[in-house]
Write a structure and sequence with these properties.
137 residues, single chain, 12 strands, seven-stranded mixed sheet, globular, mainly beta
Amino acid sequence: MPALSFPYRIGHSDLLGRIRRPLLTISIFSQRFHEWIEIQNLLADTGADLTLLPSHLGELLLPDIRDAKGGVVRGIVPGRELRVYLHRLSLRIGTRSFRGTVGIADSAAVPALLGRYQGLDRFTAVYRRGKALVLEW
């Protein structure tokens, strides 16, 4: 079974201090520039329904991030709703390419994350005791 391993990276939390996070690198095909754009440090978030990118990354991928179905999500920004626009994009993790729905936030102040819907759910995700994330397909 093909697999990719992503070592956890050390980050900082205001509440917890130093913390290890399952961050990965993916490529997304840019409809704006007609090439693959590598996006680093996406949080592999099994608690997130949707893959989410901040507006500045969405603007690298699309001519107009608002030219799509819009809606709001909660839980990303505490106490606030976040407006997102849903886009079907081509994604690639390692050698595995697939189409997925990506929410582009109407804000730059949100984390980039890979959620379950048409993202992590395409893989068997194994979290190796705070040391690495292994994606198998």
